[in-house]
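call fold(seq) -> C-alpha coordinates
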Amino acid sequence: MSAKFRFSRRSLKALAGVHPDLIAVARLGLRLSPHDFVVTEGVRSIDRQRELVEAGASRTMHSKHLTGEAFDFAVLINGRVTWDFARYREVAHEIKRGAEFLGVSIKWGGDFKSFRDGPHIQLETK
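ret:
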Protein backbone atom coordinates (compact mmCIF):
# COMPACT_ATOMS: atom_id res chain seq x y z
CA MET A 1 0.00 0.00 0.00
CA SER A 2 1.49 3.31 -1.01
CA ALA A 3 1.15 6.70 0.61
CA LYS A 4 1.51 8.65 -2.62
CA PHE A 5 -1.55 10.82 -1.94
CA ARG A 6 -2.34 12.94 1.11
CA PHE A 7 -5.42 14.93 2.00
CA SER A 8 -5.13 18.67 1.56
CA ARG A 9 -6.21 21.14 4.23
CA ARG A 10 -9.38 21.65 2.21
CA SER A 11 -10.19 17.93 2.36
CA LEU A 12 -9.45 17.75 6.08
CA LYS A 13 -11.68 20.77 6.69
CA ALA A 14 -14.47 19.16 4.62
CA LEU A 15 -14.18 16.01 6.74
CA ALA A 16 -14.63 17.94 10.02
CA GLY A 17 -17.72 16.63 11.76
CA VAL A 18 -18.04 13.56 9.53
CA HIS A 19 -18.58 10.24 11.33
CA PRO A 20 -15.18 8.88 12.48
CA ASP A 21 -15.74 5.53 10.70
CA LEU A 22 -16.29 7.36 7.43
CA ILE A 23 -13.17 9.49 7.96
CA ALA A 24 -11.16 6.28 8.45
CA VAL A 25 -12.68 4.89 5.23
CA ALA A 26 -11.77 8.06 3.32
CA ARG A 27 -8.19 7.98 4.58
CA LEU A 28 -7.67 4.32 3.72
CA GLY A 29 -9.45 4.79 0.39
CA LEU A 30 -7.01 7.55 -0.52
CA ARG A 31 -4.07 5.29 0.30
CA LEU A 32 -5.49 2.49 -1.88
CA SER A 33 -6.73 4.69 -4.72
CA PRO A 34 -5.04 4.71 -8.13
CA HIS A 35 -6.00 8.41 -8.41
CA ASP A 36 -5.71 11.36 -6.09
CA PHE A 37 -8.98 12.85 -4.86
CA VAL A 38 -10.18 15.71 -2.71
CA VAL A 39 -13.09 15.68 -0.30
CA THR A 40 -15.33 18.49 -1.46
CA GLU A 41 -18.11 18.30 1.09
CA GLY A 42 -18.93 16.51 4.31
CA VAL A 43 -21.47 17.84 6.79
CA ARG A 44 -24.07 20.14 5.24
CA SER A 45 -26.45 22.62 6.78
CA ILE A 46 -30.15 22.29 6.03
CA ASP A 47 -29.91 25.55 4.03
CA ARG A 48 -27.07 24.16 1.87
CA GLN A 49 -29.06 20.97 1.30
CA ARG A 50 -32.11 22.98 0.27
CA GLU A 51 -29.95 24.94 -2.23
CA LEU A 52 -28.68 21.70 -3.77
CA VAL A 53 -32.19 20.24 -4.07
CA GLU A 54 -33.48 23.44 -5.68
CA ALA A 55 -30.55 23.38 -8.13
CA GLY A 56 -31.20 19.71 -8.99
CA ALA A 57 -27.82 18.60 -7.60
CA SER A 58 -29.54 16.53 -4.90
CA ARG A 59 -32.91 14.85 -4.82
CA THR A 60 -33.58 14.64 -1.10
CA MET A 61 -33.90 16.75 1.99
CA HIS A 62 -32.98 13.63 3.99
CA SER A 63 -29.34 13.52 2.89
CA LYS A 64 -26.83 11.70 5.06
CA HIS A 65 -24.66 14.82 4.70
CA LEU A 66 -26.97 16.47 7.25
CA THR A 67 -25.89 14.00 9.93
CA GLY A 68 -22.22 13.67 8.98
CA GLU A 69 -22.75 10.23 7.47
CA ALA A 70 -21.63 11.13 3.92
CA PHE A 71 -18.91 12.86 1.97
CA ASP A 72 -18.45 13.91 -1.63
CA PHE A 73 -15.16 13.75 -3.48
CA ALA A 74 -13.62 14.90 -6.75
CA VAL A 75 -11.08 12.80 -8.61
CA LEU A 76 -7.89 14.53 -9.70
CA ILE A 77 -5.97 13.55 -12.82
CA ASN A 78 -2.70 15.45 -13.21
CA GLY A 79 -3.88 17.84 -10.51
CA ARG A 80 -7.13 18.71 -12.26
CA VAL A 81 -10.68 17.62 -11.43
CA THR A 82 -12.15 15.12 -13.87
CA TRP A 83 -15.80 14.14 -14.21
CA ASP A 84 -14.97 10.92 -16.10
CA PHE A 85 -17.30 8.41 -14.43
CA ALA A 86 -14.85 5.56 -15.03
CA ARG A 87 -12.32 7.30 -12.76
CA TYR A 88 -14.96 7.64 -10.01
CA ARG A 89 -15.73 3.95 -10.36
CA GLU A 90 -12.02 3.11 -9.91
CA VAL A 91 -11.67 5.29 -6.83
CA ALA A 92 -14.97 4.09 -5.34
CA HIS A 93 -13.85 0.48 -5.80
CA GLU A 94 -10.82 1.16 -3.60
CA ILE A 95 -12.84 3.14 -1.06
CA LYS A 96 -15.25 0.19 -0.82
CA ARG A 97 -12.32 -2.20 -0.46
CA GLY A 98 -10.95 -0.07 2.37
CA ALA A 99 -14.36 0.05 4.06
CA GLU A 100 -14.63 -3.73 3.89
CA PHE A 101 -11.17 -4.09 5.42
CA LEU A 102 -12.22 -1.74 8.26
CA GLY A 103 -15.57 -3.48 8.73
CA VAL A 104 -17.53 -0.35 7.85
CA SER A 105 -20.65 -0.69 5.71
CA ILE A 106 -20.85 2.02 3.03
CA LYS A 107 -22.71 2.75 -0.17
CA TRP A 108 -21.32 4.50 -3.22
CA GLY A 109 -23.62 6.94 -5.00
CA GLY A 110 -22.65 5.44 -8.35
CA ASP A 111 -24.55 2.31 -7.27
CA PHE A 112 -27.78 4.20 -6.54
CA LYS A 113 -30.64 2.94 -8.70
CA SER A 114 -32.53 6.20 -9.32
CA PHE A 115 -29.79 8.84 -9.34
CA ARG A 116 -26.17 7.90 -10.04
CA ASP A 117 -24.03 10.14 -7.86
CA GLY A 118 -20.42 9.19 -8.61
CA PRO A 119 -18.78 11.63 -6.17
CA HIS A 120 -20.83 10.43 -3.15
CA ILE A 121 -19.99 7.98 -0.35
CA GLN A 122 -22.26 7.34 2.63
CA LEU A 123 -22.51 5.09 5.64
CA GLU A 124 -24.98 2.28 5.05
CA THR A 125 -27.42 1.90 7.88
CA LYS A 126 -29.21 -1.34 8.45
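The first helix runs from residue 9 to 15.
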